[in-house]
Write a structure and sequence with these properties.
Blueprint: E1 2-9, H1 34-42, E2 54-59, H2 66-78, E3 100-108, E4 111-119, H3 133-140, H4 154-167, E5 173-176, H5 178-181, H6 183-187, H7 196-209, E6 216-218, H8 230-253
Parallel strand pairs: 1-2, 1-5, 2-4, 5-6
Antiparallel strand pairs: 3-4
Length: about 250
């Protein structure tokens, strides 16, 4: 199965006040229960015996943090900082140059989790740069091999979303760099669902692409940290669990 998931970045103007927060969170998140949710992922096995692994395809604007998200999931599951997918902190152009699949080690070098991530070139504004929409459509059908070389504009992402819909492939959006987007979240990541600004941006993203807000997950990728953080992991876990659940629903209804 080729799972199809959106990834985008939050780069609007930040709020003027760090106190621009709600009195109550608008979405509940299990802070402090990381180990319980982590065990759910560790215990996961596909219900469909013919399925070896779920395949999760990440795509989105250049610089939105697709490779960083893969490394952040790997860090979460390994319990230490990892850098399996190459990242670039300087270039404004797409750093990923080919279609590549990443497996995550589980109990030992020969044991892997039953889900993989596929990283691909970022979408860019110019139609002749970055990954092409047609390439993404082929990827969703499983017609691109590892090593294949090939917008920030909402139109490109919307076109891919509609193609995924036509194939019956579930879609989920991950909004990254939430600490850069909102000062209150930078101060304390637990303010993520208290932030009026992030809530409004998630609603705007939903309206632009047609993805329900319940399928949009804000996360902070690991960037400057040298050790994992439970709260950062909790948000990544929330997105990862829903990816697995959507993938399971897809393969079991075919």
């Amino acid at each position: 199965m080729l799972g199809r998931f959106f990834k985008s970045s939050a780069h609007p103007e930040p709020p003027q006040s760090e106190s621009d927060t709600l009195t109550e969170p608008w979405r509940k998140i299990p802070w402090g229960r990381k180990e319980r949710d982590l065990q759910v992922v560790r215990d996961y096995e596909p219900h469909n015996e013919e399925l070896e692994q779920l395949r999760i395809l990440l795509h989105g604007p250049t610089g939105s943090g697709k490779s960083s998200f893969i490394n952040s999931v790997d860090t979460l599951l390994q319990g230490r900082m990892t850098c399996q997918a190459l990242e670039d902190a300087v270039s404004q152009e797409t750093f990923t140059k080919e279609y590549r699949t990443f497996k995550i080690q589980k109990d030992g070098p020969e044991t892997m989790y039953p889900f993989v991530f596929t990283d691909i070139m970022g979408l860019e504004k110019e139609t002749n740069q970055g990954v092409g929409v047609q390439d993404l459509k082929l990827a969703m059908k499983g017609h691109i091999k590892d090593g294949y070389n090939s917008a920030e504009t909402v139109a490109k992402m919307r076109e891919v979303r509609l193609a995924a819909r036509d194939l019956g492939i579930p879609q989920l959006a991950v909004l990254t760099k939430i600490d850069e987007a909102c000062p209150a979240v930078k101060e304390d990541i637990r303010n993520v669902y208290m932030s009026k600004y992030l809530k409004s941006q998630m609603e705007l993203f939903s309206e632009s692409l047609g993805i329900p807000v319940k399928c949009i997950f804000p996360v902070k990728n690991y960037h400057s940290e040298i050790d994992p953080d439970d709260d950062t992991d909790t948000l990544i876990l929330s997105a990862l669990k829903h990816m697995i659940n959507l993938g399971e629903d897809f393969v079991n209804r075919r």
